[in-house]
UniProtKB/TrEMBL annotation:
Signal peptide: none annotated. Residues 621-654 form the Protein Lines C-terminal domain. It comes from the Eukaryota. This is Protein Lines C-terminal domain-containing protein. Transmembrane segments: none annotated. Pfam families: LINES_C (PF14695), LINES_N (PF14694). Residues 412-566 form the Protein Lines N-terminal domain.
Amino acid sequence: MSGDGSQLSRVSSLIDLHLRPCAAVEVASASREEEKDLLIALSKVLREIRLWTGEEDVSSDSDVEAKSVTGSVDSGEFALGSEEQIFLGKIVGDLMHFLMVHSQHVQHLTGNVLLAISELLCAHGKGWAAFVHLLFVYAELSIGIIQPCSSVTRTRVHEDFYGILESYDLAIKSKLQKANWSTVAGIFRVLRCIWKYLKHDFRDQLVDSYLNSLNSFISHVTWNLLDDGNVVPKCVHMGPQMPKFIFLGYLTQLLSSVVEQVDHEMVQGDSVNGHQLLFSITKLVPSLFLCCLRKEEEHHDARISLYFRHKLLMLMTRLSGQGLEASVLTLWLQLLQKYFQDLMSEQISMLEPVVDDSLEGSPFSASMFEENIQGTNLYHLKRQAIFLFIKCSLRLIFSEEVVDQQCDCLSARPCLSSHPEYCSQKKVLGELYKWLSQNLQHDTHCDSETYMEKCMHFGSSFIRLYAQEDDLLFKVLLEVLSIPIPGSEKFDEVKERIPDSRENTLIHLSNLFNPFNLFHSFLAEIKYDHQVLLDYLISKDTGISCAEYLLRCLRLISESWEAFLQFSYVRSPKEWPSTKERKISQLKVNFRLEPYSTGNFRHGHKLQGAGGKPFDKAKLCLLSLKYSVENLHQKNLFPYNPKVLLRRLTEFQELCFNKGCMGRVGEGRLT
């Protein structure tokens, strides 16, 4: 290949050759013949660029590989000369004209041409970052043109990251006079596909420049203009809302995917752009709720509302691992109360587990929307909403950061709650108490004869609710492990910091989420099958979280051996379908956990029922797991270093021997 500007000049010439004759097509009224000619011309351009990309991949692989290991982004490396800027501006500007044509086929094929150019420039090694940044600029300015009804005027000063000059503003705006939401949706379809391409070839320079441009886009768009509640009536005539929802769908998809990848790849490498982008997206969440869910009747279809609820919950779940400030957690609790109250209000113990509730790919497949949309997808939303509600509440209640009485919301709008005291830790504790009370049918008196039984049943039902989604299961179990045990130093500190206006609220919280109750319920749910535990541990999705949960539970067991040993249950007259039964097992035993207590945890309640069976089953499961992990580790087949886990399992085994609890287990396979 010849000089650095050769690719941009070649693409520009190719577009002139095939698409210039179609430039006069009126975007709003293209005839069938014009549409056909345009599709043929776009196909020729696409085919030619893909051929060049194949040649470029072969000729420059080694050069690109060398660049990919040089370190962080150097903006000078990606800067374009004046001639290259002209070619780039002309290419994107010409294709934007066809992206505005009122034809789905033309828009789709134009998007594919833009994708092909991205791949060509990526293989070429120069011009790609400026190309992507320019796409974000076109999307931003398109939104500004579509929403002219605000009295707010802003001057966009484009960062000169890649040689893109401020003078582009007028040139771009002149090309976007007929832009609409379909145009923005088309641009974001391309940007989302580019990100998917980057995920498979995660080069630091390319990803960092992409994140830089995405962060710039988020920071400069006036998001409250997208909320139709802020648009004056004269703007209502500006066309159907569906293309805007399509754009918002692509945007939420992109943000969710970016947050997941940034969390795993970028932040761990201390990427400045990664951290800044996570902050910008977190700040954007309230505006996305207002844009996507403000008026559900505009969606024309309940599927769109369900889709946005799912994507927004997924985005919040992925952001929730970033150590969010108290003001953010408080605002999120308000969002959950406002938009997901219907999902969280139903009693967990009343939910009938759905055997085929697993999610494959998107949880909103077409088969779920034929007539009955109240299917398994709502269980998925319920799990996500309850997980976030519990996580945000516990982080606020047990955080040492003091939450101001007056909410400092990140949204430009007033606080969703009309009561400022909502933002206090005491108010958060009260809201959590109210939700838990609903799940026990308001029987929250610790002296009640049925109270402990209902606590046990709640724990069992809680495990069953999350058993279908392994990643969420371990996330929520790890969260509730943060609840301090009555009598502990942490419990007393929280009790003193948040005077409890309700009797024994914190004790009630600890009873419902007792770690031994949940751990035994978890093992019972998987039929005490150590192979299922092993599958969790070696899974790419659940391995780390499952290992962390087991380690923390094993430490609790070693500290409170009698509580674990004396746990007991009785058979339940009601059969529940197992959600995690392995095919090799034909065991169909189901249990309902009965009331239990220990001196350290239950303040005077006496242990009831015959002890031993749950302990024996748990003991066999955990010791069998120990030998399986040891065997794999000795053969270098375990995917990570399990030494810490093996040490804890060995301590558990020693406790069994020292306490005289091995029984016949030691005479069988385990010796």
